[in-house]
Amino acid sequence: MRIAIDARLVSYIQGGTSRYAISLVRAMAALRTSHELVVLEGRKAEGNPGWPPGVERRRLRTPPHHRYEQIALPLELLTLGADLLHSPDFIPPFRRPCRSVITIHDLAFVRYPDLLTPESASYYGQVGRAVESADQVIAVSEATRRDLLELLKADPAKVAVVYEAASDDCVPLSAEEVAAHRERLGLPERFILFVGTIEPRKNLPVLLKAFARIWEGLRVPLVVVGREGWLHEAVFQTRDLLGLGDEVMFVGPVDGEQLVYYYNCAACLVLPSLYEGFGLPVLEAMACGTPVVTSNVSSLPEIVGDAGLTVDPADEEGLADAIIRVLSEDGLHAHLRQLGLRRARRFSWDRAARETFAVYRKALA
Fold it and tell me: What pTM did the predictor assign?
């Protein structure tokens, strides 16, 4: 097979979808099959974000999410000679010269349409047509598969679950390494970590309210890692209303290698999302040995299992209590660390690559 992977988004946004594309390509290349892998990069691509040797790279002029994408992208694909196009960002060209596989990471924009800007709603509103058009669909969790069947009436025969995994770089570091990175990054001795795009479904206002409840008693700051997404203003308004200043550090997006250091330096990760299709930061934190507090909705209980504390994302008091327990009960902290490490080992990119190749073969059958 000659397989093209649409990775144009990697040149524009360092987020979950970009990390998914890089990790999957690296794992597929490591299998050393006879298949040809062609990575489609954006016109702004610079350097190498992590593509392995032996993978062909093609730079396309068509930007992702552009209003003329459905016209320009099929024309560029004509020159590739690909048998199949994999779209990790899940909106494929509807007229194309090859078979199509798409990955659906979540359907938050269908369940919560009010959490989108009009522009985003217009683009992601194509998801129903995308699922119908694709030859095969990858869902990253059973929860996402259920949403596809329920909300979009997808054909069950063409929806396969292929779990993501933490990066191979996500491992526990030694105490000496942690101390060195903490000093270099200017991080507090102990802190609560949030990782994710600053947007409504990540539920940061509730986290800030829960944090405000416990600050006086614990004096453990909150570090927020992630770029500003749509409708992010409410987060900063909540911070200001609560009078939170230096207690909360917004450090912006960081690359994968740096993110591992944040996970290792943190006392715990808190991800109180209203909805996650997979929740990669939860798995990455567990792989680094960092205890997790997260929501009891969507895919998060499926990924965490019994290795973390789960709470109702609307319950700020319950969230505050869970954070207090992890930070103040040494036995619980150590127990969750061991459970998390064990749980994370159940997910691997090698397995994801093999199962993805199986989906490709089904699409081409």
Answer: 0.90
